[in-house]
Amino acid sequence: MAATRLDVDFVRAQFPAFAEPSLQGQAFFENAGGSYTCRPVIDRLTRYYTQRKVQPYGPYAASRLAGEEMDEARTRIAALLGVETEELSFGPSTSQNTYVLAQAFGQWMQPGEAIVVTNQDHEANTGPWRRLAEKGIEIREWRIDPDTGHLDTGDLENLLDESVRLVCFPHCSNVVGEINPVTEITAMAHAAGAFVCVDGVSYAPHGFPNVGRLGPDIYLFSAYKTYGPHQGLMVIRKSLGDLLPNQGHFFNGGTLYKRFTPAGPDHAQIAASAGMADYVDALCDHHGGPEGKESDRGMFVHDLMRAHEAALLQPLLDAVRDRNAVRLIGPSDATRRAPTVALSLGRNAGDVAADLARDGIMAGGGDFYAGRPLAAMGVDPVLGVLRLSFTHYTSRAEIDQLLNALDRVL
């Protein structure tokens, strides 16, 4: 019989950090900044550096195996995301990938044409696009509700017309946490003749999405926040990728996954990224998930993760939403958001995070490169927010540890 609940003990056994003596007694609540790394990724990275650290794709065994491992990572992760293998690119970071894409759009678009951005975004998916104003591109801002941080699709509709070429927005914000309706927004943009770029950095750690089913033309996220190495993963659908000017070496222009990575690839980290697919497979099999398509197996694991996270998140939201002098940013319903909880406290959030460390709570305080949404909601960027972010490997005991610590500091 298939398991209906996430086996957290099994999950935590896949992460060496939970057996590390120096981390015992500490609960990790800054996962939005970067997750622990799963064992399959560590094992693959170790094997690559030990046995394959040569130029890949050569005729000798070590080189051939190195190239095969890189290809395996692209093939398996693309299948997990429900897209074609050639539509997945690797780059040094999501910020860098977005910057390269912005350069391509800047060359392709004409002065007077428009891009829609939001003020809900982390700076990575808004700053590079806004800079295109210097090339005569019109930048239109889809603004959040200053009280809730919510993006209203009705407001987007008022921004769309025949001059808009691209709509950029987050799957969820790294401070607001609310999950935006990607498929609905994509359909609206496509109906207006625009392409769509989704920043999935804050969503993907909570379950790899089926990008093919969601429908955007670009989807970006970071492997180091999804239990992997420090790489940026970038889906670019072929229909768009073939239109944009090549940003790589001229001789790579005919290969979609090389067109938007100007620098040489990090061979070892790309190869190690296949460990993320290993991990999803292990969870799927352990919990009695489906055989067959990688994307279906990925969605089974996605749903397991989300259900576990929502069950742990609701008590945290309930504990903070009605506190005096605490402002919860984003929805108070766990099913509508990721477990990334930002609190405006009216005092320096960094100091509060340091105080929480006394109770073994690893959290962060600051603006988290989300100065625009915080300013729009009237949060003093100097004071920042306390951010408490977790993922599916968090246990109920760690939530209790956090709640006890919050009782003391708040």
From TrEMBL:
Residues 28-243, 305-402 form the Aminotransferase class V domain. Gene3D superfamilies: Aspartate Aminotransferase, domain 1 (3.90.1150.10), Type I PLP-dependent aspartate aminotransferase-like (Major domain) (3.40.640.10). Pfam families: Aminotran_5. Keywords: Aminotransferase, Pyridoxal phosphate, Transferase. It comes from the Bacteria. InterPro entries: Aminotrans_V_dom, PyrdxlP-dep_Trfase, PyrdxlP-dep_Trfase_major, PyrdxlP-dep_Trfase_small. GO terms for molecular function: transaminase activity. PANTHER family: CYSTEINE DESULFURASE (PTHR43586), PYRIDOXAL PHOSPHATE (PLP)-DEPENDENT ASPARTATE AMINOTRANSFERASE SUPERFAMILY (PTHR43586:SF21). This is Aminotransferase class V-fold PLP-dependent enzyme. It comes from Sedimentitalea xiamensis. The lineage of its organism: Bacteria, Pseudomonadati, Pseudomonadota, Alphaproteobacteria, Rhodobacterales.
